């Protein structure tokens, strides 16, 4: 292996494995779900798009920082569920030029699924709130009625007919 082999550019005729492996795909999905749960999908996609040409340099920096990753592995495992095997998998994944596109696609996919679920939950809550309004009993109305003592006139008539047992002056 000579110097020319070390600085060789890939031959366009050589098939390059562009698709992520199974373990890389699992890692991508786990990371994308983590990002979407925290609501960081848009800032992260913008960051990835702006630094996309630097992914190979980042993977090489991960190799340089590997001893530090060994040192903080318990922290990574405890807080992020990220062990050293995942670190090496991510490093190999980021060496590929197309890796950033796969990561962006995964984040967008899980973000779209998350938004659909949120819309369903909002629609359900809105229907429940509408049903409560039809009955005239929303939580906010009950709270302010108790707080300010402003009751409907028919409620006042009922309270006059039945004296309160906790009343000191009766």
Could you tell me the mean pLDDT?
Answer: 80
Low-confidence stretches: none
SSE order: HHHHHHHHHH
- Tell me the strand percentage band: under 5%
What share of residues is helical? over 70%
Descriptive notes:
There is one protein chain. With about 170 residues, this protein is an all-alpha fold. It is built from ten helices and no strands. Helices cover about 70% and strands about 0% of the residues. The chain folds into two domains: about 20-120, no CATH class; about 125-160, no CATH class. The longest helix is centred in the C-terminal third of the chain and has 37 residues, at about 100-135. The model has no long low-confidence stretch (mean pLDDT about 80). It has helices spanning about 5, 20-35, 40-50, 55-65, 65-70, 75-80, 85-95, 100-135, 140-150, 155-160. The protein is elongated, with a radius of gyration of 29 Å.
Summarize the structure.
This protein has 170 residues and is an all-alpha fold. The chain has ten helices and no strands.
List the helices and strands and how they pair.
Elements: H1 3-6, H2 22-37, H3 41-50, H4 55-64, H5 66-71, H6 73-80, H7 84-94, H8 99-135, H9 139-148, H10 153-161
Question: What are the key terms here?
Answer:
170 residues; 2 domains
């Amino acid at each position: 292996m000579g110097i020319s082999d070390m600085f060789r550019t890939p031959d366009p005729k050589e098939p390059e494995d562009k698709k992520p492996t199974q373990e890389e795909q699992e890692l991508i999905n786990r990371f994308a779900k983590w990002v979407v749960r925290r609501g960081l999908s848009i800032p992260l996609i913008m960051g990835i798009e702006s630094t996309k040409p630097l992914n190979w340099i980042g993977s090489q920096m991960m190799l340089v920082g590997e001893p530090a990753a060994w040192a903080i592995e318990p922290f990574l495992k405890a807080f992020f569920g990220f062990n050293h095997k995942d670190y090496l998998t991510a490093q190999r994944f980021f060496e590929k030029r197309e890796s950033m596109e796969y990561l962006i696609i995964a984040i967008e996919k899980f973000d779209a699924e998350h938004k659909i679920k949120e819309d369903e939950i909002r629609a359900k809550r809105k229907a429940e709130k509408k049903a409560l309004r039809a009955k005239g009993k929303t939580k906010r109305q009950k709270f302010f009625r108790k707080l300010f003592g402003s009751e409907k006139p028919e409620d006042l008539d009922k309270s006059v007919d039945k004296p309160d047992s906790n009343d000191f002056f009766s």
